Amino acid sequence: MACEYVMGWVCVFYGLGARNPEVLVHGEYGQRPVHGCHYEVTVREGEEPGRVIATIRASDPDSNPIRYSLRGDTKKHFTIDKDSGELRTVQSLDREENSTYTMEVIAVDGKNSSLSVTAVVTVHILDVNDNSPVLVGDYSWKYLCTPRWEEQAVVLASRDSDGPQHGGRLNFSLRSDATVRRNWKLTPINDTHTNLSLNTPHLPPDVYMIPFTISDSSSPPGAPSSTCQ
């Protein structure tokens, strides 16, 4: 069987509603601005780069300027404004490539570089339904016997690169064609596998093209489905 595919910062900040989440960092005269902390930010995958995802503002009673820098962002996915502390994405992020990014933000006293503080930032990438399910395996050598043998079936396998929220159970369905539905049937085995079998006692020996669709469990389905035959 051939397959054709037509195919901000707050101390634990998870919301997407706030446009510029902030944390204000205070210190004492002649001391480091603040002790380190761990902050979390959520970004939706595929968003256009350049959006401010967090703003870091450190302050000191003696009004010395603060300079910000990043450490640990080896692939340069993010940038921080050295004066304003605005943290931005530099490129579109793909959750299937990496679901979390961890880096350090260093705030340095502009008049005394020996005074600095480091905070850890973890950016979580929120999954969106941007991948179609795919048929897995080579079925060109599979066959069914006619007249029909009871319980004989071809097991079809599929996968979806999206997370469980959008991938989840994958649904196989025959095309809305009376002849196809009369001759064939699909019976789910589990979330990713289904049985293809004859739905009629007899078909003439031949090679048959059986069009069917694989869709994910999103409601309504978001990513394009895969159409196979």
From TrEMBL:
One of its GO terms (biological process) is cell morphogenesis. The keyword Calcium applies. Residues 39-135 form the Cadherin domain. One of its GO terms (molecular function) is calcium ion binding. Pfam families: Cadherin. Gene3D superfamilies: Cadherins. InterPro entries: Cadherin, Cadherin-like_dom, Cadherin-like_sf, Cadherin_CS. It is a single-pass type I membrane protein. Keywords: Calcium, Cell adhesion, Cell membrane, Glycoprotein, Membrane, Metal-binding, Repeat, Signal, Transmembrane, Transmembrane helix. The keyword Signal applies. Its main location: membrane. It is found in: Cell membrane. One of its GO terms (cellular component) is adherens junction. PANTHER family: CADHERIN-16 ISOFORM X3 (PTHR24027:SF424), CADHERIN-23 (PTHR24027). This is Cadherin domain-containing protein. It comes from Anguilla anguilla (European freshwater eel).
